[in-house]
Amino acid sequence: MSVASAEIQATFCATLFDEFARSGLRHVVVCPGSRSTPLALAAASSDLALHVRLDERSAGFFALGLARATGQAVPIVVTSGTAVAELSAAVIEASLDRVPLIVLSADRPIELHQRGSAQTITQAGCFDRHAVFSIDVQAPAAMDATQWRPLASRLVLESSGVSGTRGVAHVNLGLVEPLATPAGIMPEGRRDGGAWLRATPLGPERRTLQDLAARRILILGGGAFDDAAIASLVSSTTMPILADPRSGARRFGAASVICAADAIVRSPRSRRELQPDQILIVGGPPASKELSLWIEACAQDGTSLITVGPDGPSRFPWAVSVEHRKVATLNHAVALISGDPTPVDEAFSHLWQEAERIVQGALHDICQEDSWSEPAVVRALSQHLGDDEVLVASSSMPIRDLEWFGGPCQALVASNRGANGIDGVVSTAFGMAAAGKSVTCLVGDLAFLYDVSALIDGITHEQRARIVVLDNRGGGIFSFLPQRRSVGHETFEQLFGTPPQVDIARVAQGFGLSVTEVTSGDSFAHALAKPIEGLEVLVCRLPDRDHNVIVHDEIHRRIIERLG
After folding, report:
1. 505: how many CB neighbours lie within 10 A of its CB?
2. What pairs with residue 50 in β-bridges?
């Protein structure tokens, strides 16, 4: 390749990042590599804040955390070969949970494919089943310069959901040597300094949902809600709002917000008395299996189900009849519900509020009696954090305990509930910390170890993150599953319990981190009371996994007893 063509290639890459900045993006994540040099140099020279992460799998979730925290697409640059494959888990999570990411993968030129060249795999279209947009540009230097800005701008728009739902936009770029050539003069952007392509959502003609029942409830799941929309919703209605921790509604002390839905619907009496005529569903599906089964049972018994938002059957594949009312965004869905004038059955709402009061009172008493259990620790953490903090909860047991027992929580709650995996939880938390948030990451011991490579890069000195590790010596959720009773103890421990062979505290100390080990509710409260400084780890040495099952069962039994 000629030096002149290499300059065009470098200028193409610089134009991409200039257009990203014009589109309002603020961050970029880069993983080290040779073939990606033109992209990395362009990213470093742009107006975007640069974050360099060594491990691509961790970097993918770091970018996802940044995108969750900012609500904006985050470009991530990787080199050719298996580096691209390492992003798969984060791409799948972003796709399923509607988080905007832009993957820029450097590729070897087409003439080096299928001939044994190093770091050369089939990358074009590798994320097609999960990306909202994917394009292969094998020769950027041959691409007409008038198309450079439209391509960059389209990547932003597509990842942000212009064609449907938000998710991952992937551009695969065949880059050729020399790779470190300086960029030339970029083609001009819009004269007003803004994005080349723009998408302006127009308001709907219909201002109400219509056909709503007075005896109705709202299941509010996780999603891209802003505080203003949620604040307006909870203050404008007395309709029971069954609020997932990720919805943001638990941050507001409104009587309409129900935090204990899982516990309430376990009571046979509540299941009968609190069945609505209509269930509205906005955002992601609940983590609670009990709540999902109750929703289906209600539908089979005549309750109408209505989802409102940009998603349809792909996110709510229930076997019962559901009406999907499609609107552009989740915030739009919340606004429609907030503004609907249909009266609410106040007596019915009061029944839900009374059930919530009973459950929260029971949880308070139980956790006062036994402050050193996983439910008690999660509840204490949830109620300790302030409204300027973020709580990142691992999938598996932490997010479930938070949903079931956490109660009102002023902090913003995030969790990777797209694919529900335990991979990348610490990296996601670090990404949110990189956006300027004070972050607490709640993980089990296995999830912590599974993402231990995140500790290699850690966070910068001005950022703040605390990792709370629930150390119950293995995979706690499996003890709640039928495998615990149907498989012999040794086999169960080998295949499912999988107790770690290393000590969590020593692993963290090996990375030079400040580690505090706590063994009681009082010592945990004392540790939480200290302000977060830099990156620190709290290791909670909790009772074993079988004891945790007993605790959960006892909590559920006592709550059902109080509810009647």
Report:
1. 18
2. 28
Q: How far apart are CA 351 and CA 239, in angstroms?
A: 11
Q: What is the phi/psi pair of residue 44, to 5°?
A: -65, -30
CA distances from 534 to 83, 460, 543 (A): 29, 8, 29
Between CA 505 and CA 515 the distance in angstroms is 6
Residue ranges of alpha helices (H) inside 417-543 are 425-434, 445-450, 454-457, 483-486, 489-492, 504-510, 521-529
Go through the chain and tell me how many residues it has.
564
What amino acid is encoded at 538 in this protein? L
Is the Cβ–Cβ distance between 249 and 257 less than 8 Å? yes
Domains contained in the chain, CATH given = 3-174 (3.40.50.970), 216-355 (3.40.50.1220), 370-563 (3.40.50.970)
Q: Which residues pair with residue 414 across a beta bridge?
A: 392
Check if the beta carbon of residue 419 is closer than 8 Å to that of residue 444. no
> Which tokens belong to 65?
């955390």
Task: Please tell me the distance from the alpha carbon of residue 458 to that of residue 461, in angstroms, as a whole number.
Answer: 10
Confidence of residue 234 (pLDDT cuts 50, 70, 90): very high
pLDDT tens figures, 57-73: 999 999 999 999 999 99
Average pLDDT over residues 229-235: 92
Please provide the distance, in angstroms rounded to a whole number, between the alpha carbons at the two ends of the chain.
Answer: 78
Which of 236, 460, 230, 235 is closest to 244 using CA atoms?
A: 230
Distance between CA atoms of residues 501 and 497, nearest Å = 12
Strands ordered across the beta sheet of 412-414: 412-414, 389-393, 438-444, 464-471, 535-541, 514-518
Burial class (CB in 10 A: 0-12, 13-18, 19+), 312: middle
What single DSSP character describes residue 556? H
Q: Rounded to whole angstroms, how far apart are CA atoms 370 and 196? A: 59
CA 171 to CA 106: how far, in whole Å?
9
Distance CA 337, CA 334 (A): 5
- Cα gap 275→355, rounded to integer Å: 13
- Contact, 196 vs 186, CB < 8 A? no
Which among 340, 429, 349, 343 is positioned nearest to 390, based on CA atoms?
A: 429
> Between β-strands 412-414 and 389-393, what pairing exists: parallel, antiparallel or unpaired?
parallel
Q: Tell me the backbone φ, ψ of residue 156, rounded to 5 degrees.
A: -65, -50
Give the integer Cα–Cα distance in Å for 402 and 444.
Answer: 13
Residues 6+ apart with CB under 8 A from 462: none
Count CB-CB contacts under 10 A for residue 205. 5
Q: What are 354's two structure tokens?
A: 């009374």
Question: In angstroms, rounded to a whole number, what is the distance separating the alpha carbons of residues 459 and 433?
Answer: 8
Residue 114: its pLDDT value, please? 67
Q: Is the pLDDT of residue 205 over 50?
A: no
- The Cα–Cα gap between 282 and 284 comes to 7
Identify whether the C-beta of residue 134 lies closer than 8 Å to the C-beta of residue 169: yes
Give the predicted TM-score (pTM) of the model.
0.92
Residues 364 and 512 sit within 8 Å (Cβ to Cβ) = no
pLDDT score of 44 more than 60: yes
Inter-CA distances, 98 with 91, 229, 370, 427, Å:
10, 18, 39, 18
Sheet holding 131-137, edge to edge: 49-52, 27-30, 74-78, 101-107, 168-174, 131-137
